[in-house]
Amino acid sequence: MEHNIALLDAIPYLRAYSGQIFVVKAGGELLQDPRWRDAIARDLATIHRLGIGVVFVHGGGPQLDEEAARLGIKSEIVAGRRITTPALIDAAIMCWRGRLSAAWVTALQASGERGFGLAGYDGGLIRAERRPPVQVTTDAGDKVTVDYGLVGDVREVKTDALRSLIALGVPVITPLAQGAAGEVLNVNADTVAAEIAVALKAAKLVVLTRAVGILADPADPHSVLHWTDLVELAELEQKGMIRGGMRPKVAAIRRALLGGVPRVHVVDGRHSGSLLSEVFTTEGSGTLVVTEADEAPPEPLI
Q1: CATH no. for residue 60?
Q2: Taking Cα atoms as reference points, which of 30, 27, 29, 28 lies closest to residue 39?
Q3: 184 pairs with which residues across the strands?
Q4: Which of 301, 169, 162, 190 has the alpha carbon at shortest distance from 247?
Q5: β pairing state of 227-229 and 53-58
Q6: Does a structural domain hold residue 1?
Q7: What pLDDT, in 10s, does the model give residues 172-210?
């Protein structure tokens, strides 16, 4: 499916967002087809050329699962988040900071845009604190105490380097942070994107997935919500409709909105132009999330 955007329809959005910053996150599953990767890179390059700053954060769950299996390393996910052992953090550094970052940077450069690959630990860009054991509710509804290992909760994002790079191209961020003792900590990529969006006072956080948006019922692919708010998301969570990897995404959406990011979008990254369609048309192509449903009219803002 191609999304054709009429220039006249896009002008109000370009006026609204010129000079502002979008933070875009893509899951590792969107690297599984080079066509998806290349289409996303083209959209990011287009947005940057239109005078909007872009920071791109990538995940890499499927690739880390494959690497762990190849190396014989146990990999376990509880409540949508990965338990990270020292062996697994070494594999993540090799896989994410190496192959995955390079894949996104070279895709951007093939689209005529400069990409700059950075891990969160580079230059102390993202500082995190190791998470203590926490009680979580599993998808089955059981409450368990989990030690996530070398997993961090973000405490600081240094924005000076990001702002300098945004003027030159697109920073590509690998979600590995620097711990208090100098160790490398794994941080969920959705969380990293939300924290960067808050720190940069971004106009938008866009989460690219391999789904059409947020579903009211995960069993029904046609139940996509085109417009929702935090109240409705909380209700879906209580009903058990937010499961697996969607749980940290919803937590990141909540963090971004409550941290001052006006709008969050969840968009299917498999379709060429879907990112542009979502942010530059009234109809959009995924799910738009705001803090409260009656707080603002549909876009454009001006």
Answers
A1: 3.40.1160.10
A2: 30
A3: 178
A4: 190
A5: unpaired
A6: no
A7: 999 999 999 999 999 999 999 999 999 999 999 999 999
